[in-house]
Design brief:
It is built from 15 helices and 5 strands. Belongs to the thioredoxin family.
Length: 322
């Protein structure tokens, strides 16, 4: 992301040091990052940025109140700096109130972020960036940044959900959402927990809270598919009756199909896959290729990393391309 859209002056520190601006006291803290996030002015830039960057890198966020992308980027920067746990500092400069430094650096559009290290500007990017890109930018400056508290809770929640410990998983997803209330993976995981507890209504309500920009996130797509499958399974009737029908008439593809959906809803993923594969083996074109389509829906609902997904895809490929 280095230097996109503008260049930074390597002589800025010297310009400031020659009396154009002086260290007239420390800037006030800003945002939610405590000592790691502060507002800086033209008068405090020398102390809070140039001098401070000899201790650790300082990111300067050039912004203005009227700038929509700035309002998107600044919270992302604050979170990434907080997650870095002191490896870098964020200095926010309102260019409407303090235009001199931005003018000296040739910054012509915002948001713009310039990284200072050892008293000099060393890297920069322009425009709103996703959190992953901001984290990579910080790691390039300060070395690897470990997982945030939210990421740790999310990992624990996924493990609890995989073990079908719905209540524990829901609590952990809730902890993530207390820090990041629109985290799509946490919302999707919480919806899956409600689904596991049989509360379809709350599962749907939770999934509706996902921001529109994240509706195609893989975890959200998986939760959406899982809800659809659960609703489908609800209308299929007694599992034992379906099993009996298939045993008595193995060529009853509809009964076998319904049994597969019912088994999936009860957590028997391998059994569900095997029955659908049996339909594909017997009649690939049955009901407009519905068995294969249902397998694909299962894979979407379970996710690419699920062992049942990998198993099903391997078996399906061997049948289709044999």
């Amino acid at each position: 992301m280095s230097g996109q859209g503008f260049s930074v002056s390597g002589t800025l520190g010297g310009t400031l040091g020659n009396g154009g601006m002086n260290g007239g006291g420390s800037g006030s803290n800003g945002g939610g990052g405590g000592d790691l996030v502060r507002d800086v002015t033209t008068q405090t830039f020398m102390q809070d940025v140039i001098e401070a960057s000899h201790t650790r890198p300082v990111l300067v966020d050039f912004w203005a109140p009227w700038c929509g992308p700035c309002r998107q980027l600044t919270p992302t920067l604050e979170k990434a700096v907080s997650d870095a746990k002191g490896a870098v500092v964020l200095a926010k400069m309102n260019i409407d109130e303090h235009p001199e430094v931005a003018g000296q650096m040739g910054i012509q559009s915002i948001p713009a972020v310039v990284a200072f290290k050892d008293g000099r500007p060393v890297d920069a990017f322009m425009g709103a960036q996703p959190e992953s890109q901001v984290k990579s930018f910080i790691e390039k400056l300060a070395g690897p940044v470990g997982p945030s508290d939210a990421e740790k809770f999310l990992e624990e929640a996924e493990a609890a959900r995989a073990a079908r410990d719905w209540s524990q998983a829901a609590q952990l997803y809730g902890a993530v959402l207390s820090m990041e209330n629109e985290n799509p993976a946490a919302l999707a995981g919480l919806a899956q927990c409600y689904l596991g507890l049989g509360d379809f209504a709350r599962a749907k309500q939770t999934l509706e809270m996902v921001p529109e920009a994240a509706i195609d996130d893989p975890s959200v797509a998986a939760a959406r598919a899982a809800i659809q499958l659960a609703e489908q399974a609800e209308s299929l009737g007694d599992l034992a009756e379906l099993q009996t029908r298939v045993e008595e008439e193995p060529s009853d593809h509809q009964a076998r199909f319904d049994l597969a959906v019912a088994l999936s809803a009860r957590g028997d993923k391998t059994g569900a896959v095997d029955h659908l594969l049996e339909i594909v083996r017997r009649d690939r074109e049955w009901n407009d290729d519905e068995a294969r389509k249902q397998l694909v829906q299962f894979f979407d609902a379970w996710g690419a990393k699920d062992p049942a997904t990998n198993y099903g895809r391997r078996k399906l490929s061997s049948i289709l391309f044999s």
